[in-house]
Input
Amino acid sequence: MTDILFRTDSHIFSYRVTGVCIQNDSVLLQKPTGDDGFAFPGGHVAFGETNEETLRREFREEIGAEIAVGNLKWVAEVFFDWGGRPCHQICLYYAVTIEDAHTPADGVFTAQEQPEGRNFTLEFHWIPLDRLNEIEVYPVQTKRLLRQSGDGVAHFVYREGGGPL
Output
């Protein structure tokens, strides 16, 4: 499978989907081991793959979970530095529910990830919603959006460092 990930000598474009999984008043977040910043689990959409197929594949590969994909929650335009090049990422966030998993329902667990030939460990954490202010979550707008309820789709723009890339 080929990810929808375009690189030029000076820029990167990334199309990613993530799952917002809340259960028992905790949200499932991931981070590379040794990193302080959390993000939502998911991955790059492959050519010919729907967003739902991508989420199902990523959750199955990374944590061994079968999921149900719900409504689109947020649409993000994310700008950040990726290996010394500016990256423009479109990220869609969907509500997901774990249906069948061989992973803990709370606490921390790990999985191996091999993007672009690199091997590293991802930690998955169930973070209580009332403790979100104690951690770094990227993009930063997602912490506020998690606290809001509503049926509509929210849109936001995140620029790493706050300025243009």
Remarks:
- The chain has a mean pLDDT of 88.
